[in-house]
Amino acid sequence: MLADLGTLGVTAASIGFLHTLCGPDHYLPFVAMSHVGGWGRGKTMVVTFVCGIGHVASSVFLGAIGIAVGTAVLKLETLQKIESQRGDLAGWLLVAFGLTYFVWGVARAIRNLPHTHRHGHGGGHGLRRGSMTPWVLFTIFLFGPCEPLIPLVMYPAAQANLAAVVVVTALFSLTTLATMCTMVALICFGTGPLRLPRVERFSQALAGLVVLSCGVAIKCGL
């Protein structure tokens, strides 16, 4: 049993790491919004972490429902279908948000509105201090599924191994959160500030394009 638990734990952590690392939609939107919003390091990491919590918690909740109602193959297929539909919705939300932000950024650049690179209060360029951007990202990630988690927890659940279910869920979730935060920190803060004066006024449009690209990648199954 301990050998199986160890194998499941390593598998869960490895899949959580690779799933997040190979999915730029897990971290690039935060990097882009942090840059154009002038978020400080603290706010950037808090927003990333909270969105990551929503991202994994929704799948954990769905998995718990699956365990509660049964672990038959039919139940697993149903849960995977629900996760797939949630993934489609999250992709469309990223596309809509990215496209809206891109259009707004292009319009702003064309109007040549005054632009400052960073703000100490983290309110964003021309946006109110209480920007809705973090809440929009949280909503998108709440709908975004952790697809590998469901089949990972269904196997130990079928064996009535509650300890393995808890270990798999915890390791997958913690690894996913740690990878998201690490990637955001490395990209945002590890290379220092990037300053390109000639394209600075297009920063909002470029940020929207990054988010839009992530959404398109999800929809295309990339």
Describe the fold and architecture.
This protein is mainly α and 222 residues long. The protein has one domain (26-189, 199-219). The chain has 8 helices and no strands. It has helices spanning 2-21, 28-37, 41-69, 73-111, 133-143, 149-158, 162-189, 203-219. It is elongated, with a radius of gyration of 19 Å. It starts with a helix and ends with a helix. The model is unreliable at 115-130 (pLDDT under 50).
Chain-wise SSE layout:
Elements: H1 2-21, H2 28-37, H3 41-69, H4 73-111, H5 133-143, H6 149-158, H7 162-189, H8 203-219
Helix pairs in contact: 1-7, 2-8, 3-4, 3-5, 3-6, 3-7, 4-5, 4-8, 6-7
End-to-end CA span: 37 Å
User: How many β-strand stretches?
Assistant: 0
Q: Give the helix/strand class.
A: mainly alpha
Uncertain segments are 115-130
Q: Beta-strand level of the residues, as a percent range? A: under 5%
Short summary of the structure?
About 75% of the residues lie in helices and about 0% in strands. The chain is mainly alpha-helical.
Kindly list the characteristics that best describe this protein.
single chain; 222 residues; mainly alpha; elongated
